[in-house]
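Subject line: Sequence and fold of a protein, written as structure tokens
Enclosed: The protein record, placed directly beneath this head.
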Amino acid sequence: MNEWKLIVGLGNPGATYKHNRHNVGFVLIDELAMRWGFIWKSRGNYALAAGLYKSRPIMLVKPQDFMNASGPVVAQILKQKHLNTHELLVIHDELELPFGQFKLKNGGSHKGHNGVRSIIAACGADFDRIRFGIGRPEGTKAVSDYVLENFTADQQDCMPGLTEAVGALIESHFD
């Protein structure tokens, strides 16, 4: 089992994208920061919330470049902090899972996710991920439009319980 020291939530910066499906990585990492009492601080091209959780130093990061350019930011932090990809967990949205399902996995391909593709290109593929299901668009709606839409009202109502469950999964890793 990898020892996470850097947990990265993927999303797009700015109020326009705050409630988009594609920003679920930001939503979930904000939950961790709140649970652990970490305070967000701007570090130029990323936001950082750091502290101790169960006596372990942890850094939470939200890249502030757009999703598709997340890789260089993650590589920069890994290099600056002398970490390797075995100490990295990335949280992102996943089209291939129905809304609300989530899975922890190690390595693998990007499956078309451009934020993950960027991280793999910059850092390699051997890192842990939490894939949070947003489902696929219905009909002929373009994926690029779908991911940049807000969650439905029903989905937003489910998010507090889901963020709690993802937080509990991550915390169980430190037991």
Q: What stands out?
A: The first strand starts at residue 6 and ends at 9. Strands lie at 6-9, 41-42, 46-53, 56-63, 88-94, 102-106, 128-133.
